[in-house]
User: Which sequence fits this backbone?
């Protein structure tokens, strides 16, 4: 059974940093691209970042480019999102999502999300 | 990376059909056949329903179907059922290893 479990969320002050992790199990992690998608309270979904199976391709939404860094450790079956210079508008539930291929295609499994609240 | 445009809400009676549009540009919906549709019930994670424009994920009822014409993709739910009441989001590949979601549509079963 595919499982994605996010961790690392919490309350953080504007301008500070936070690192999200996603522990994957139930599939061959290094065969698939992975993504982060967020949802602000009461709002819609926003694709944040994606990384290919071998880290050869990485992409970011304009809203986080230069502030967020996605990475993966295939030996640990883990996906990460380093979030720097956080802003109030980054407040959201952050989902880890598995792709159906090694490169960007679509998201077939999602975690339950990690809540990030940016507030002073 | 502007969000794809979806109607805010659609509604129908049980057994009726509803269609949700998803309008983008030639840089996303119109440029790639990587359009997918997600269903989200309140408090739950999104669930993939349709991918590659019109392919149904295994286990998804065949009353859900997808299509695309130019820069607009569509999701049709035929034979609407009570459990179909949820939020629906389209998503498209937008080039340079980026993606973009639609604004979301609330489907109400009357």
Assistant:
């Amino acid at each position: 059974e595919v499982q994605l479990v996010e961790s690392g969320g919490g309350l953080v002050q504007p301008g500070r940093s936070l690192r999200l992790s996603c522990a994957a199990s139930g599939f061959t992690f290094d065969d698939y691209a992975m993504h982060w998608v967020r949802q602000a309270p009461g709002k819609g979904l926003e694709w944040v970042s994606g990384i290919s199976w071998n880290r050869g391709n990485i992409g970011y939404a304009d809203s986080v480019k230069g502030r967020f860094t996605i990475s993966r450790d295939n030996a640990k079956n883990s996906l990460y999102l380093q979030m720097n210079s956080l802003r109030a508008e980054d407040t959201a539930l952050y989902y880890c999502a598995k792709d159906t291929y090694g490169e960007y295609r679509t998201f077939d499994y999602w975690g339950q999300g990690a809540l990030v609240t940016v507030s002073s | 990376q502007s969000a794809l445009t979806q109607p805010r809400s659609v509604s129908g009676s049980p057994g009726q059909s509803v269609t949700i549009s998803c309008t983008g540009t030639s840089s996303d919906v119109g440029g790639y056949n990587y359009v997918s549709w997600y269903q989200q019930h309140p408090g739950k994670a999104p669930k993939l329903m349709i991918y590659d424009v019109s392919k149904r994920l295994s286990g998804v009822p065949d009353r859900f179907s997808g299509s695309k014409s130019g820069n607009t993709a569509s999701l049709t739910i035929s034979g609407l059922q009570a459990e179909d009441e949820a939020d629906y989001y389209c998503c498209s590949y937008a080039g340079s290893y980026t993606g973009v979601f639609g604004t979301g549509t609330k489907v109400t079963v009357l």
The first strand of chain B starts at residue 9 and ends at 12. Strands of chain B lie at 9-12, 18-23, 35-40, 47-51, 55-56, 64-69, 72-77, 86-93, 99-101, 105-109. The interface with chain A takes residues 1, 3, 34, 36, 38, 40, 45-48, 51-52, 57, 87, 89, 91, 93, 96-104 of chain B (CB under 8 Å). The mean pLDDT of chain B is 96.
